[in-house]
Amino acid sequence: MPTLLIVAPILFGILAWLSPTAPLRTLWVVLGGALTCAAGILTALRGAAEFTLPRWSDNLAYGIEIAVIAVIFAISFRLKDWRIGLLAVAQMVMAALERLLPHAALPPAATFVIDPLSIILILVISVVGSVIVLYAIGYMRKHEEHAPDTAAPTGRFFLFLVGFLGAMNGLVMANDLRWLSIFWEITTICSFMLIGHDGTDEARANARRALLINMFGGTAMILGGLLCAVQGNGNSLAHMMSAQALIPIALLCLAAFTKSAQMPFQSWLLGAMVAPTPVSALLHSATMVKAGSYLVLRLAPAYQGTRLSEIIAVAGAFTFAATSALAISQSNAKKVLAYSTIANLGLIVACAGLNTPLAYSAAVLILAFHAVSKGLLFLCVGAIEQKIGSRDIEDMGGIMYRMPITAMIALLGMVAMLAPPFGMLLSKWMAIEAAIFSPLVLFLIVMGSAMTVLFWAKWIGRIQTVSYHERYDAERLPASMFAALIILGAGVILTGILAFPLIPMTEGLVRGAYAGLALPEASFKALRTAGTFAAWPIFLFVGLGLLGAFFAVRRFSAAVIRPPYLCGENVGGTDVSYSFRSLMDKPDTAWSKSLYLKPVFSEDKITFWANLIACMIILTMFGMIGAL
Amino acid sequence: MEALLAFVVAWKPYVLAAAALVVAPVIGALLMGLDRILTARIQGRVGPPLLQPFYDIVKLLGKAPIALNRVQVVYACLHLALMMLVVVLLAMGQDLMMILFVHAFSNIALILGGMSVRSPYSRIGSQRQIMQMLAYEPILVLMVVGIYLIFGTFQISRIPAGGVPLLVQLPLVFLAFQMVISIKLQKSPFDVSTSHHAHQEIVKGITIEYSGPYLAVIEITHLYETCVLFTVVALFWAPNPLVGLLLAALSFLFQIVLDNACARLTTMWMLRYMWTLPMVLAVSNIAWLYLRNGASLG
Fold it and tell me: What residues make up the domain containing B185?
């Protein structure tokens, strides 16, 4: 089954790439997605497992690793970017060194491990990822019509899109460091190819930046593996964690920061939005950035109680607060989503750094809820953009009438990001309660949460702004896009309802993760208290409110509707009018822009200083553990 | 009678919650009526009768419903429902942080309702109300954090009744909280998103497009909120309820005097002010609690 998780997407991706006709390609993509999804769910049902590959596979892994790095080197050659080339050479040298140096005799570790954390990630990747792939079929058909001439063939697009899922599945199962870095680099290549898909100057530049930053992270990861082996601490995650080799662990966390686009590495993810929307959806929800937060979480028990843990918490919380502030000044929908992704990843990293059972549970829940809601939101923005030809939030007024279904689902996704009774709010609540003994982290999370509410509320307000209409007609969307929206929308509602019962269920996962540490039983108390929160009043009153609203608007008719107050200067007429009599009695429409607070929160005011602080935090991180 | 008593004891949290749902708006209305009389006297007028807020709401409820669209009505209902939820959760002794979140979302519902109409005044009012939330919400969170640091729990039901009054341990947070109440009650100099006074530059701001029964729903929500705010003030001296009431009365008087002594200032001024003086007060109080508890600030 695990083999299928990795091989099936890659294989069907290749088949899709080789398909001569579009219908055949669609067939392979659908089959690949369905198979991955099924394999993911089956793996989850089977539960924890370990797999040890025979000894000869070491040579295989080494061969693949060299091949992957060689591919990147070739790319750097074509890009004529010596920095990427240099990093590739460095990686190759370190990989060879690791191979040549004598190894300490340690009990062999499993090559692949499936534990509860991996299972959550596999479910996210296989299910949410497959739904996004499904959406991509309809989206790319439309995209081909108006894509620039420079765009790569759609077949190649699906190769990397579907193959991505395989690499991610491999990544979250890998225990052996060499396999881990193989899949790590494959996801880097996939994202590079997908971001550059349209082939415009901007797309190429942003793809190159993504490659460079992620190669930097990959180099840190291989260096971490090399150091770990040199220190005689083995070549698997399990070995590294049981040895508490802090410097290699910190290097892996640095790699995770680059992949999760934590400050100061956020620029590649912001640039990634030039890609077709399914790519953004995939990068932001099911794959890529989740790899980083996964790794930080995976390693968390190993650095529990150290200074490293404290500084990781500060780094994550700082990213959360800074990117939430940056999101306020953005009116580009995809950019708001991107900053919100980085912020949520920051929150996950902060929770991993807080490193208590409650925080760990919160981090896992945020990871899962965020994947579903953010995937959904990107898909909605993609559909809206194809319809109205703009991704500017200010242009989204009135879409409730023009595309009611997409607008309603988008609203659902946004509300799920912040409001009760949905899971994101719940996990944020847990995160804040977990941060209570780390004042600085707490302060950053609180300020960040307040600013998060500001940018979501503005957007929700704009989307739902609508004049009165007697009836709404559903818009037409390609079947695959429509199906994807419905599936993820249902997922959001389901996780919203299930959010409270999920907390006690994560306890087993958390206990497993901290099993080797013998944490005092009291440290689980906070998690257990959160799990016993009586959720029914929340559902009851939200339900009552909606019910009351239903009865209030049930009898609405055009007779109830009045024009807005415009100082009595409304343009007359039989219809409800939104215009007022302006200068010389000319009709003019009243319009108020949303608040963007650019003088305070604009990118050119904040980014430089925030990056500087983030760099200092990371330097402090290495300084504190004595690596500098 | 005994059966009734047994029922009350067995279902105490729920009975308390139900009672609070009934009593809270009454207290809120009386406070608002008193506010209007006192304000009138300060301004040299006689003012309305004490029960005027009741009369207003009854009159509003009897009017024919008119609206701009369906969405705004949905949000008015959620505004009220979530505020009632706050009262219920408080009475049941639930988690303070979650109560704070629910309270925030009640206000966000109103903001979204104001934003959902194509009316410039309403939208501007909504935007300003978001800024108000941004200004006061961190201080409320700090207050809850302070309570945790003193009692070691977020659960109201686990907070012991006696002991040292909160005011002694959270004096600076208490001062910052007074500013929060001013914003919440839309008092000058913070009444930027809507105002009780007859005219302001954005007319009635966030609630301008609500009328009749829908405006009544929002007014009822305000009754609940007013009661909640001053109950929290009274809880700062929980060991002796009489002193607590006195504290609440003083706070109430302070709000009215401040309102009448100040002119409205701009939204950005409010944000800057709240994020400096009250924030510094609250943060230093919390920092002191951390240091006293022996934790590092790192």
Answer: 2-293
